[in-house]
Design goal:
About 10% of the residues lie in helices and about 55% in strands. The longest helix has 24 residues, at about 15-35.
Length: about 775
């Protein structure tokens, strides 16, 4: 991290770590060479999930894309089950840096997973990237961070995907798919143990009842004792327990008509927000030390119905979902031993989505797709801010002291309440719909040239029903007479916002041959506007300045103007290359992008620090490169490099106090990288049947934490290791995450003019044991 004058406070000692990594790679290579010297004339059995193969992944066909996924004119990363396991991807945050220009800071709880792609993202209410699980959109990033279990495939599409996916896809889309029992049949029992009380158990069974019916069930239990101690209580601040499962029924009505019914459940009970105060002078982070409760509990349930019909001419698909989410967050918002103020937020979300798509299914040059999409999202939020003794003394009482100083004839009023609760009830229902179309014409004018064009008409209506209040007792003197008065400040009402948007996309692709192609894409991205609710306590507090005994509450401006934020738009320009540089040995992908953002949505803390709000921050531009290289040096050995660079800066942003034009966007790393190697070998008639070794070094930085760019995390790297083997149905693996125990800051923010930091998790290590039959 750097202070305002640029002095490096933390020295990551990258040279020493690079030396250690170099030594590990040399040792790793020598080990592989020793294995290769062993002559084995027996026939080696085929590994059906071969992570070292360039053709390892069977791409799940899209129900609405008119291009083949493997030749899509855009930037996409696809991860197989073996890669998910070997790279230790346990949740969406673990995708950070593995995917070029993809980053999710550790916010301190599962309440939010702020996704940044190519410098575009938002860390609070809004979202700039969407997530789909088995073709179903997750409408709130509160639901993004869940434990992965039996993942068939993960796809990360970078760049605006609004034409096919609509709202909140300005940065890109994360697609997650789970297995079907019609495609694979097995039973798996696994247990993981490690330091910091890490314990995880999984059980799954995939059974094919007959040719047309398959059923699968998968469940997990996951816990840890936490990584950071709260000095005030002497207990771990971030211990977590989560559990859940999935029940899936796959069926075939006929050879052309298939479907799946999927039920998901996930429960999390989590200590949260292990933030320590940051000393800008010394560059040190103080231990976690706060007196009030800090935790997060969440329960999610999802019901999905996917139907598909296919013949020689068309493919028709329908995806229907009902999702519920209930959670509660308790936060000590001053993060100190003082009794200032706390926030208790409870959410209840009920959502329904439906998408129907029909697309061509033939080998003609012209391919097309049409679709309709609808959503209904009911979100009820109760957000109570409780000002305690120190909060009354240092935050609320000064309001009346200042009123007396400005108006000496007014009595000096003193708050007599021991605590003051500001309850807030908010209903924010959303209704939306869209129609979309995409066409692709292959071999346009010349063989190998294709044109893809699409457009989407997106509509959304957001409502806000609010009811919040503050009640307090005041006492003072006027002349020689005592004065006592109650003060009751209430805000209640309704507001609405409407958004309609056209989202076009055009791509040109030229196949140099069957193994190489280049492309150029222009696409519009869009995030709708909405309402801020966490800053209502500040509106109430400011309103009491204008209130007189017996009078009405007078906000400083219309509630709609104070709470709403506008939509955010972007235009993305991208050119790229994909191809095998050496057939079956070396594959490369390269893309250059330029993103122009208007009315950028930016998170700010409100004046009191009692909440966050989204505001529109002028314009910004992000330009950079995505690069991936995969090498299969031996049948058993593959190496890979993923690298992303984003130069994301404000073009025009002035908050009335400071002009931030030219400054880097906060929370978006300038660089992400991942260097990894995988070795897998199978044996016949040996003591063990198979071994696998994976080494991976991921990094991100420089990350500026503030629009002023006065605080930053320098480039850092994390080494993850995994090695194991198996015999028959038995498997065992040993693993380490952050093997070098890299010291870095995962999250930074400022509240009440005080800076706070969450440290990155320390080195963890453990072992997995599983039985697959």
């Amino acid at each position: 991290m750097r202070n305002p004058d640029g002095f490096t406070i933390k020295n990551k000692n990258m040279n020493q770590r690079l030396f250690i990594i170099f030594f590990a790679i040399v040792f790793y290579s020598e080990t592989i060479y020793a294995f290769e010297k062993e002559k084995n004339t027996d026939k080696t059995e085929v590994d059906t999930i071969q992570a070292s193969s360039l053709s390892e992944v069977v791409i799940t066909s899209s129900g609405k894309e008119t291009n083949q996924m493997k030749t899509l004119p855009g930037s996409i990363t696809v991860l197989s089950p073996a890669q998910v396991q070997g790279m230790q991807i346990f949740d969406v945050k673990d995708l950070s840096a593995i995917v070029p220009n993809f980053f999710i800071p550790d916010y301190g709880s599962k309440m939010t997973a702020p996704v940044y792609i190519r410098g575009i993202g938002n860390r609070s209410s809004g979202q700039a990237a969407g997530m789909y699980v088995d073709n179903i959109p997750y409408l709130n990033k509160t639901s993004f961070d869940f434990d992965f279990i039996d993942i068939q495939q993960i796809e990360v599409l970078r760049g605006p995907q609004g034409t096919l996916y609509g709202r909140n896809a300005m940065g890109g889309i994360i697609n997650i798919f789970t297995p079907s029992a019609l495609d694979c049949q097995y039973t798996k029992v696994g247990i993981t143990g490690g330091n910091y009380g890490i314990l995880k158990a999984t059980l799954s069974d995939y059974s094919r009842i007959n040719e047309d019916l398959g059923i699968s069930i998968a469940g997990y239990y996951d816990q840890d004792d936490g990584y950071f101690t709260n000095e005030y209580s002497g207990k771990k601040a971030d211990a977590t327990t989560s559990y859940g499962g999935r029940l899936r029924l796959d069926f075939k009505v006929s050879g052309s008509f298939t479907g799946a019914v999927i039920f998901n459940y996930d429960k999390t009970e989590q200590g949260a927000f292990p933030y320590g105060k940051y000393d800008k002078t010394t560059g040190t982070v103080q231990p976690v030390n706060y007196n009030d409760e800090g935790n997060y509990n969440r329960e999610m349930f999802g019901n999905t119905l996917n139907l598909a019909y296919k013949n020689d001419h068309i493919q028709l698909s329908s995806s229907t979902s009902i999702q519920t989410l209930k959670d509660q967050m308790n936060m000590d918002q001053d993060y100190s031993p003082l009794s200032m103020f706390t926030l208790t937020q409870k959410q209840k979300q009920y959502s329904f989505t439906e998408e129907i798509t029909v697309k061509s299914n033939n080998k003609n040059n012209y391919q097309w797709s049409f679709g309709v999409f609808g959503l209904s999202n009911q979100l009820n939020t109760r957000a109570d801010v409780d000002f305690k003794s120190d909060g009354i003394k240092y935050i609320l009482q000064p309001v009346f002291t200042k009123l007396h100083e400005d108006n000496p004839r007014m009595p000096l009023l003193t708050i007599t309440d021991p605590s003051i609760l500001i309850p807030g009830l908010f209903d924010t229902p959303t209704l939306g719909g869209a129609v979309f179309h995409q066409s692709t014409y292959n071999n346009l004018f010349v063989e190998g040239l294709s044109l893809t064009a699409g457009i989407r008409l997106d509509y959304e209506k957001d409502d806000l029903d609010y009811n919040t209040s503050m009640t307090m007792d005041l006492a003072g003197t006027m002349g020689n007479r005592p004065v006592s008065m109650p003060l009751d400040t209430t805000l209640a009402g309704s507001e609405s916002l409407h958004f309609t948007q056209l989202l076009p996309k055009v791509s040109l692709k030229y196949e140099l041959n069957k193994q190489h192609y280049v492309y150029a894409t222009v696409a519009k991205g869009y995030n709708p506007g909405g309402f801020n609710i966490q800053m209502f306590s500040d509106i109430v507090k400011e309103a009491i300045k204008e209130q007189r005994p017996g009078g009405n509450t007078v906000p400083s401006a219309p509630i709609k103007d104070l709470t709403s934020y506008k939509p955010e738009f972007s235009w993305n320009y991208e050119i790229g290359f994909k191809g095998e540089l050496i057939k079956d040995i070396l594959r490369a992908e390269l893309s250059l992008f330029y993103i122009d953002v208007k009315d950028m949505q930016l998170t700010q803390f409100v004046k009191s620090g009692a909440g966050r709000m989204l505001t529109n921050a002028g314009s910004a531009v992000s330009k950079g490169v995505d690069f991936s290289l995969i090498a299969r040096l031996l049948p058993e050995l593959s190496l890979g490099i993923n690298y992303g660079y984003s130069h994301a800066t404000f073009k025009d942003y002035d908050d009335g106090k400071t002009d931030y034009s030219g400054k880097f966007l906060p929370f978006a790393p300038q660089q992400t990288f991942s260097v990894y190697g995988t070795f897998r070998k199978t044996f016949i008639n040996k003591i063990i049947d198979r071994i696998n070794v994976q080494a991976q070094y991921n990094g991100a930085g420089k990350i500026y934490w503030t629009p002023a760019n006065d605080m930053a995390q320098d480039l850092y790297g994390i080494l993850n290791l995994r090695a194991g083997g198996g015999k028959g149905i038995f498997n065992v693996s040993f693993w380490m995450k952050n093997a070098l125990n890299t010291d870095y800051d995962a999250f930074y923010f400022e509240s009440m003019d005080s800076p706070f930091v969450q440290k990155g998790k320390p080195m963890t290590l453990g072992a997995d044991v599983s039985i697959v039959f």
